[in-house]
Amino acid sequence: MKRQNSAPTMKDVAREAGVALGTVSKVVNGIPVGEAYRKKVEDAIEKLNYQVNSYAQGLKANKTCTVALLLPSTLNPFFAELAYYIDIALLKRKYRMLLCCTASDINAEQEYITMAQQNKVDGIIGLTYNPNLRIEESTPYVSIDRSLGPRIPCVASDNFAGGHLAAEKLADLGCKSVAFLRTGSSLSNEPNKRKAGFENGCLARHLNYELKIIDDGDPFQEFIDFLEMHYHKGRLDFDGLFCVNDELACRIIRVLQNMGLRVPEDVQVIGFDGAKGFGHGDYYCSTIVQPTAEIAEMCVELLLQGNMSVRPPLICLPVSYAAGGTTKDM
Amino acid sequence: MKRQNSAPTMKDVAREAGVALGTVSKVVNGIPVGEAYRKKVEDAIEKLNYQVNSYAQGLKANKTCTVALLLPSTLNPFFAELAYYIDIALLKRKYRMLLCCTASDINAEQEYITMAQQNKVDGIIGLTYNPNLRIEESTPYVSIDRSLGPRIPCVASDNFAGGHLAAEKLADLGCKSVAFLRTGSSLSNEPNKRKAGFENGCLARHLNYELKIIDDGDPFQEFIDFLEMHYHKGRLDFDGLFCVNDELACRIIRVLQNMGLRVPEDVQVIGFDGAKGFGHGDYYCSTIVQPTAEIAEMCVELLLQGNMSVRPPLICLPVSYAAGGTTKDM
């Protein structure tokens, strides 16, 4: 499309204010000048509606006021929520967000990291399961859900506490024999702690439990086989299931219904994430809710804070439980 | 966080290639030089892994390779899908996407438009219901779902055809008496054509129909009152409902179930959008599917095409029908 270049320049401001160009430059860049000069320049800026050219400023100050967010995609509601809240946290601080959906382009993540190293973005917030990512420790990077090294902060939910809470809830709701179902990346990551927390909670509450754990890419049929193996004469061996996320919980609920089992009457099901239909409707299922807004705020705060002498390697934020119709809470 | 500036510069490339700085500049900016020089510079660029500083280049070429996407939020799955596919379409063309969720900041939209006018972004793709937006016709802007003026292209689904298709489907599926339920912005917009298409389809297929139309912000209770008014002795006057989007359809289905009505046995329901749980699961309901990937591709193509002598004011892309369990298709 055709462009226009009628926006006022620093020269126009200098002419309007009746001062030297260098004086305008000092005021714009926050360098002290005499009060009367500062006032003249500020009045001229306001009168002309002069806007600082952030690209020119970026070159000088090594600051672009832009942060890149790397997410696999926005199709998953937890990722979409993260994008929304991180954008809000950045807007509040007058920063812009470059969003890169990395699932479609395996090289994109590394390109953004190069941009950050070259000061073309001020930093990166990334949720990635790319095993080959190369990030220097000096790169301004905050990771979500996966630790990428001791000097790169990682922000996550308190996944262990979430798994523990799920076991406690199932016990409180009368379950005697439960199972944990998990699919996910085989790479070391924070969400894996949901399993350990759940086991710990089951032991504390004397719940019988089994685990069925498969990797991303393994056939879903393995869960169906597992459930059918534990199905005898119209009854399931389990009266409670904890699924590693809400999406899996919803798929498992359909399997149970196809087997003729009622949720929550015969089997109670708890998921993880706190995803909501259409972003603000009901929870898909009873769930351990991730504090998405707080995760977003923490990532932005950590990334943009000046003093990086304190660089916490892992920050875990508290989760909560929400009833969503697939447990007997009422 | 601490920055490093170890990336090779144009000077390093000149030294490595044994040519003048101006020669490197010419090659980088696509200005012809002697073949032997070009080869030397390209070899040096590859050897040093020199990356063009896009901010410096942006200043010179009035090009930033960055496009801003303005969306109310990413919490609505249709918006989240748009963000995903627009990012893919931009990545394919080596562009980056600034995403701005405007629901939280009423001034953000206007600020991005100013950025586009100042060539700080190469253009804007916006889905907005802001009635006060000021956009000059020369601003590179493509609108989604709402026409902002004759010289600003608008891309949308063929909403009229979608409404028509919903009426036809309900007729095909045996409905005799139907209703259209709509909530949305009172501003003129493309999705409003769903109503006209539906009415047209009902007339063509001799379906009795009623309309219940409320504005954003009106109480949802009005829909409940409407349905209860049409409920006599355990039966609803309607055997088919078309809801303006999937979110409304899901809420209405719950109201029907609370009234003791079965979906689809007693009442068949069709929504609009083609939203899917968790982005890739099942449709929430039977639905008119918006071609989100095609809308995204069209917006990006229109915005970035060089020749804007052809500036179509409105482009409507074809929709399709998908069964989602709330109609008697099987």
Question: Would you kindly provide a written description of the structure presented here, covering whatever features stand out?
Answer:
2 copies of one chain form a homodimer. In chain A, the strands form 3 sheets. Chain A has a 6-stranded parallel sheet with strand order 2-1-3-4-5-13, sandwiched between helices. Chain A contains 11 helices and 14 strands. Chain A is an alpha/beta fold and 330 residues long. Chain A has 3 domains: 43 residues, 434 Repressor (Amino-terminal Domain) (Orthogonal Bundle); 117 residues, 3-Layer(aba) Sandwich (Rossmann fold); 132 residues, Rossmann fold. In chain A, α1 crosses α3. In chain A, β10, α10 and β11 form a beta-alpha-beta unit. The interface between A and B is large, with 60 and 61 residues.
Order of helices and strands of chain A: HHHHEHEHEEEHEHEHEEEHEEHEE
Strand order of the largest sheet of chain A: 2-1-3-4-5-13
Helix content of chain A: 25-40%
Continuous helix count of chain A: 11
At CATH level 3, the topology of the largest domain in chain A is Rossmann fold
CATH architecture of the largest domain in chain A: 3-Layer(aba) Sandwich
| Share of β-strand residues of chain A | 15-25%
Q: Which spans of chain A have pLDDT < 50 for at least 5 consecutive residues?
A: 1-5
Overall mean pLDDT of chain A stands at 89
User: Would you state the CATH class of the largest domain in chain A?
Assistant: Alpha Beta
Largest sheet of chain A: 6 strands, parallel
* Count of discrete structural domains of chain A: 3
- The CATH superfamily of the largest domain in chain A is known as Response regulator
- Give the overall silhouette of chain A: elongated
Assembly annotation:
homodimer
Number of strands of chain A: 14
Largest interface: A-B, 60 and 61 residues
- The N- and C-terminal alpha carbons of chain A lie at a distance of 59 Å
By secondary-structure content and strand pairing, the structural class of chain A works out as alpha/beta
Radius of gyration of chain A: 26 Å
